Amino acid sequence: MAITGADSLMLANSPHGDLPMVRRLEAVGFRAWPAASVVYDGSWQVRLTGGHPSKRLNCVVPLDPSDYHDADIRLEKARKKFAHYGRQLVIRETPLSPRPLIDRLDEAGWVCIETVSVMTADLAAIDFSETLAHLPTHDIGRFIDASLAVHGADPAIKPAMAEIVSAIKPTTGLFLMENPGEGPAAVTICVQDNDLAGIQDLAVAEERRGQGLGTEILAAALRWARISGARVAWLQVGETNKAAIALYQRFGFREAYQYHYWRKDETA
Questions:
Q1: Which keywords fit this entry according to its UniProt record (predicted)?
Q2: Does position 1 have pLDDT exceeding 50, yes or no?
Q3: Rounded-to-integer distance, Cα 190 and Cα 119, Å
């Protein structure tokens, strides 16, 4: 039997990730959470979004392990571009990043400020028999208001969030749980990109945690993705978010690879 791209995602065992698998997950990740401005310096993707503070939307992502030439000059060029947006330069290190570049950052006083796990799960192996079905909403404004409320985020980023969600090109399901008069309780976004489905922005309101809502809304999104034709689900979660990781592991998610954010230590 031929091995599909989705099958290869499930077969990768390297702790650093299988590079073709990493490239594919990085590509779908960019499409699932698009930055407002994306330019390339060689194979380095420079991502900037003026109205939203997310590091995923405001970072430089080197995408070729051999592309390290003129690194100091390119870093300074990127620093100036980020400064124009009022942001400090952030480098996102994946298994595709040149090792000499990361060593250079370390030697120059940069620090790793966050580690994120990219996880995948086989949708065919998930049992949805005891979970409830929820249909996604098509009301982007209503969903964004709910997302901001659940996250406790600054309402000022609403226009940027609307731009991001509206710019997602693959088929997208916006999932929202709320009770009349009680406000939004949980949200998530599921982006189906051919046979892959990405879970984004999953959150439960602080006062509603511990009631199974995370399980319910994640199951609803994954069920929708499987019915829509996806075979493998993926997501990204900070390594310190133990509660979320435990939830994802119950659905069969396992780590495919990690990535790291680096920033210059301005106090050094």
A1: Acyltransferase, Transferase
A2: no
A3: 14
